[in-house]
Design brief:
By secondary structure, the protein is an alpha/beta fold. The protein contains ten helices and eleven strands. It has one domain: Aldolase class I (TIM Barrel). Strand 10 and strand 11 form a beta hairpin. Helix 2 packs parallel to helix 3 and helix 3 runs parallel beside helix 5.
Length: 300
């Protein structure tokens, strides 16, 4: 997020929990089985465990996950677990306060680490850590993060820096590639063996350390786009459906939810959105057009 000047939407423009639940129920009827709540930061939404409880009761939803910066996780880990949340992804770009503040523009590294401990204590399994990799900033964090994840039995995923930053400072030379990170890890820990037989639509290419068996993943949307296997849709907090993180077009489902539209109308809108999904995001092409919205406005 920007360091200053963030303009928050009026509450009336945000979808209500009931609207989100209705949309999800329609999505589940069309075959969607996995739901992830993201942000911005989803834990700043008042009453979030209530929404989790509503979503967890929808027929057809098999997996319910949350991506969080972890700052409020100590407070909400247990209520989320009790409400039906199954999995957590926690953003952790570095283990030094300097790197943490440089990327997040906030203090609070210890609060995130405390939140991770709380999530482990209340019984969350298969917790994933998301680490955005930026050339010239995060190289020194690669090995410490890997050691921390192995010690805590967490799955670490390195994510290439994408052109969705609020400051619009992204440029190709700032991308710290997944392959270069893999080479650093292998020089420190030994060979990494690719995991086979996993869901081909997941964005991460996963490996296991040959010595420890710990798992690590690389999400490489810039150097190794995975568009051909992508099966994701996003709905923003104000009710706009997006068929790609980098889409410059949105489909307005809030208009239907707050009007006289039927569930069939929602179905048709979703189908139209999927039909218009492009073959690739085109980051690596000359005609790539950066979306006006940043990641915190879209949902990761």
């Amino acid at each position: 997020m920007p360091e200053t000047g963030v303009q928050f939407l009026p509450k009336t423009e945000l979808l209500t929990f009931e609207e989100i639940t209705r949309f999800t129920r329609v999505a589940a009827s069309l075959g969607i089985k996995k739901i992830r709540l993201t942000g911005g930061e989803p834990l700043v939404r008042a009453g979030l465990p209530d929404l989790v409880g509503q979503l967890s009761e929808i027929d057809g939803i098999e997996d319910l996950a949350l991506t969080t910066n972890g700052l409020l996780l100590s407070e909400y880990a247990e209520p989320l677990r009790d409400a039906g949340m199954k999995r957590l992804n926690i953003s952790l770009d570095g283990l030094s306060e300097k790197t943490f503040q440089r990327i997040s523009r906030r203090t609070g590294l210890q609060k995130v680490l405390d939140g991770i401990e709380k999530a482990i204590d209340v019984g969350f399994k298969n917790i994933r850590l998301n680490a955005v990799s930026i050339a010239g900033i995060t190289e020194s964090e690669i090995v410490p993060l890997a050691k921390y994840a192995q010690a805590k039995d967490l799955e670490l995923r390195f994510i290439e820096f994408m052109p969705l930053d609020a400051d619009e400072s992204w440029e190709n030379q700032k991308v710290l590639s997944g392959e270069s990170i893999k080479q650093v890890l292998e020089s420190e820990f030994g060979e990494l063996n690719q995991v086979v037989g996993i869901d081909p639509s997941q964005p991460s290419v996963d490996y296991e350390f040959e010595v420890s068996g710990a798992r690590i993943g690389f999400i490489n949307p810039v150097t190794q786009p995975f568009c051909s296997n992508c099966n994701r849709l996003r709905i923003t907090s104000e009710g706009q459906i997006r068929n790609c993180l980098f889409s410059t077009t949105e489909w307005d489902v809030r208009r239907i939810l707050r009007g006289t539209g039927s569930d069939k109308d929602i179905e048709e809108l979703m189908r139209d959105c999927v039909t218009h999904k492009k073959i690739a995001h085109g980051i690596d092409t000359d005609h790539f057009q950066r979306p006006e919205k940043s990641m915190f406005q879209i949902g990761g």
